Amino acid sequence: MKADEGTEAAKRRAAESAVEAVADGMVVGLGTGSTAAHAIRLLGRQVDAGLDIRGVPTSFQARELAREVGVPLAALEDVETLDIAIDGADQVAGLDLVKGGGAAHAREKVIDTAADAFHVVVDETKESDTLDRAVPISVLPVARSTVAARLETLGGDPTLREAAGKDGPVVTDDGHLVLDCDFGSIEDPAVLGQALDELPGVVAHGLFVGLADAIHVGHDSRVDVRQKG
Ligand code: A5P
């Protein structure tokens, strides 16, 4: 099976495993992507059955789905704490992630790190020994070329993400452009992540290093859970 082609059964199992950590009264960060969508749909069914939660969506997509399935929503600025966030990833090595395949990584990083516990849901095709996927980097539109030049000096090969169904680039929910930057195999994600954080014009990047508390890896017939610590 090729990467990114995990079965819906494997994604759903991962989501079911993470949703077990959700309890009455919690505020839940709602992730973006097809695997997190399984978690949102399951939470919707549990709300129908009486579960009392509020969801904080990480994207337009997550918000629309939560509304459709009846998960009550709250804005980040209106909640004091988030108890848990459940979100997907594009690649996982240990507890480190590449995110941003859906260009939602800026809001995802804010909400996932605001939560007391960040649970990642992936299928087995996302697992890797080292992170080597191109890293999505949201930039201020005015800084597109200056950031691209700095990324090249860091050894990266940046490409402006083009939209599908629209001429021109992807524009994120918050009005940023996305550079997908290929660094090859990333030997030290923490060091690279820090270098990216320091680039003027970078809003957020998709390296999530040491942020996850649990990774739920769905297979067709089982789930493996890796916990921090
Ligand atoms: C969104 O920008 C990403 O960070 C997603 O979390 C990621 O693309 C996972 O999506 P899938 O579960 O559909 O692979």
Question: What attributes does this structure have?
Answer:
binds arabinose-5-phosphate, 4-stranded antiparallel sheet, alpha/beta, Rossmann fold, 6 helices, 6-stranded mixed sheet
What's the topology here?
Elements: H1 8-19, E1 27-30, H2 34-48, E2 54-57, H3 60-69, E3 82-87, E4 91-93, E5 96-98, H4 105-114, E6 115-123, E7 135-139, H5 144-153, E8 157-160, E9 177-182, H6 189-197, E10 202-205, E11 207-208, E12 214-218, E13 223-227
Helix pairs in contact: 1-2, 2-3
Arabinose-5-phosphate is lined by residues 31-35, 87-90, 99-105, 108.
Could you provide a short overview of the structure?
The protein has 229 residues and is of the alpha/beta class.
CATH architecture of the largest domain: 3-Layer(aba) Sandwich
- Ligands present: arabinose-5-phosphate
Give the DSSP E fraction (strand runs of 2 or more residues): 25-35%
User: How many structurally independent domains?
Assistant: 2
Q: How many H/I helices?
A: 6
CATH class (first level) name of the largest domain = Alpha Beta
- Spans of at least 5 consecutive residues whose pLDDT stays below 50 are none
Give the overall silhouette. Answer: globular
Q: Please state the structural category.
A: alpha/beta
Instruction: Round the Cα radius of gyration to an integer and report it.
Output: 17 Å
Strand order of the largest sheet: 2-1-3-6-12-13
Topology as H/E string?
A: HEHEHEEEHEEHEEHEEEE
Q: Which topology of the largest domain does CATH recognise?
A: Rossmann fold
* Total DSSP E strands: 13
N- and C-termini, Cα separation? 31 Å
Query: What level of helicity do the residues show?
Result: 25-40%
The overall average pLDDT, rounded, is 96
- What's the story with the biggest beta sheet? 6 strands, mixed
